[in-house]
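Step 1: inspect the first sequence and its C-alpha cells.
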Amino acid sequence: MKKILILDDHPMILSALSALLSDKYPNIKVLTAKTSKLAFDILHDSIQSDSQISEFLVIADIELKNDSIDGIEFCQLVRQQYPGFKILVYTNHDKFWVIRQLCRDGINAIVTKNESGEEILKAIEAIKSNTVYYSTEISKLMAVYIGGKKQPNASEFEIKLTSREKQILPYIAQGLTSDEIAKELFISSETVITHRKNLLTKINAKNTAELISKAIEMGFLG
C-alpha cells in the first residue's frame, strides 16, 4: 500500500486519523480531503503522477454535509473509476439499509466512529491481506439482521434520500429515461443510473413501477 486518502468533513477527525495512520505507517503517504471534489482531484493527480499506482486505500465517511454527493455515491464512483483501489468506510451510520448498501457495493471494510482507532488499524491490516473486514459493532449488526434473528424496525430502517435523489425521483415517476433526466439536470447519464440504483436499493423496490408505488406510500412523491 503506497497511499491512503481520508475523506471526512470534520477537521478534527481528519487530523486525528491522519496522525494515527502516519505514526503507524511512516512509509505510506497519508492524504486528506474535506470534500468529495477535493478527494477526486487528489485521486486524479495521483494517477497522473504514477499511472502504475494500484495500492491505494480510500477511507471515507458517508455522511458529508454540504457536499454535492453523499459518501455512498462517492464510494460507488471510486469503485467505478478506480476499481483496483481499496475502500474503507468509517462512519456514524448504523442503519440497516446503509450497511446493506455498503455490502452490496463491495466495500472492503466498514468501521463505526464509536469504535477505537485500533479497529481502523485492524481493518487496514485485513485489507492489506486482501480480506474483507467488518468491525465488532458492524459484525454484530449483520449477525442480527442478515442472520434473520430480527427484522429492522422503522427507525433502524429509516430511509433518507439525498437532495439529488429527491430531484431525480419525480422525473422517474414521469417516465423519463436516464438520458432525458440527465439533460434536464445537466448531469451525466451514468450519474442518473447510479441514483436510480440507489433509489431501488433504499426503497427496496425490484423495478421502476414498484419504486414509484412505494415512494408514494412513503411520502417521497405527492
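Step 2: inspect the second sequence and its C-alpha cells, then contrast the two.
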Amino acid sequence: MGVDKLLQKSIVYFITVIYLLLPFHKASAYDGLLHLQPLYSGKDINSGILVSTATDGNLNTTHTIGIRNSQTGTLFYHFGSPVTINAYQISSSSVMRIYLNFYDANKVLIKSIHYTEIFNDGVKHDIEPVSNVSYVALHNVSTVQVVIKEFDVFGSMSPDTTAPAIPTDFTGTGGDGSASLDWNDNNEADLQGYNVYQSTDGVNFTKITASPITTSNYHVTGLTNGITYYFAVTAVDTSGNESARSPSVSVTFIPPPEEVADVRADAKYDRVKLSWTRPESEFFSYVKIYRKKIERQSFWDQLFGTTAVSAETTSDGYTPMF
C-alpha cells in the first residue's frame, strides 16, 4: 500500500509540473490597443469588412487571413488618432509568413516587421517605439492561409502636434458699427473650429472669440464708424493645435451723410446765389453742386412738351459744375 500511495503522489506531481510548464493564455493577456476592437479584413488597408474574432480575447475563436494578394489577405485596424506602438502579440494555430506593417495617417509605411513562425504561442514582443501610427496591418505574404487566434499591439496615444491648415479666402465687409467676415471651410477630420482676431494697427492682434466657433463666418459688432479695423482667422483642432493666422483684411465703414437741407437759390441777372444747411454728420466733408441747362422752348415744344437738354450726367439731367 505504501508503494502504491507513493506512486500516485509521483504521478500527480508529474502531471502538475507538466501543466505548469505548458503555455497558458488568459484573455486578459491580450489587453492592448486592439482588445475588443473590430478589425478590417481586405486586400489592403484601403477597404475591408469588419471582423472581431482576432481581438475578442478568446483563443478558441480564430480568423483566417487569405493567401497573399487575395481579397482577404490583409487584417488591419485604423486608429482614430495617431498612436505610439512599443510591442505586439500574435497567437496562431498555423504556419505564419506575414508582414506586420505600421502606417501613418496618409497610409505611408513607417515600419515593417517580417514575421515568420511555425506555431506562435502568443509571446509579447517588445520593439523600438513606432510613433504616429494610424494603421496597423498583418499582410500574408505566403501562398497558404494563416489562422490567427489573437492579435494585439501595445503602446499609447501619440500626442497630436500637427496644426490645421490656415483658413483660405478670408474676406471682410464693413457695416454700420460692424463687420461681416467669411472664409472657406477647413476639412481636417479633427477640426474643432476657428478663432477670430482683431487689430487697429494691423500688427497687434487680440482674439475676440471666447472659444473656437464652428461656422466659417463671423459678425463683429460694437465697432466705431470711420476707424480702420484689421481681422484675421485661425483654425483649431481637438488637440488644441492652432494654425497660423490668415492674411488679414481691413474694414472701414463711413456712413453716408444726411442730405443737405434748406437749399435756396437767389437769382440775379447773370448769376445765382445758392445757400443750404449742411449735414451735422461728423463724416461730412463737402458738397457737390450740379446744374441742368434747359434750352428755350418754342411754342410747339411747349405745346407738346418736348425738352432738349445740352448735357446730362445724372438720371434727371444734371451735370456737375465743380
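Step 3: confirm your contrast with the notes below.
Residues 178 and 221 are 4 Å apart (CA to CA). The domain at 10-157 is CATH 2.60.120.260 (Jelly Rolls).
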